[in-house]
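If you are new to this repository, start here. Below is one unmodified record pulled from the training split, so you can see the exact layout before writing a loader.
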Amino acid sequence: MIDVEQVKTDKYIFYTFKNIFNSDEMESIWKEALFLCDDDKLIGPEKTGSAIDENDKLKKSNKGIWLDKIRNLSNYLKIYKKPLSKLSSYKNNDYTLNLYYYTNKDETLMSYYEDEDYYDSHHDASCYTYVFWLFKEPKCFIGGDLYFNDINHKLQINSNMAVLFPSWATHSVDKITMIPGIQPYKGFGRFAFSTFFRII
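And here is the target side for that same chain:
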């Protein structure tokens, strides 16, 4: 059963989701993630919409791919909204959540983080951001947690876990350090499926 938690802060409310997908669903997502991770199908941050700093320097180091180009083939995009159906019971005590329900377009970026990868403090150009995490267990890296910079809150991530938050919330990803002895690293890092909900 999906475990949903509403987290209220002095600036905004966000939601965490744990134990989202069953074993068959997880297997199908893993097949897609590993297929896309193999043979250099992923592209660098300069082509996946990275935030930039005041000197036009990219704020992230990772690789990724926009899944919308293969939407009809994506295992993840067939089931990604499963946990979000649990949100309706929170509408009465979170009026800003209505903005999520007004969105009518979304795009999903699968990102993969390995040794030394990170994403510095930034916000997203959308209404709500939903991030689902996937990685091998036991975890083969240190770091990679999500940090909400403007409320000084670190969210320790787990595989098969997700978060939904207002896209204007400033957030970052701790630098990844792969645990020594794991070679090759490919596929043992941190997968993040980020969906950006917009109004058009």
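Two things worth knowing about this chain: The first helix runs from residue 23 to 37. The CA atoms of residues 106 and 168 lie 16 Å apart.
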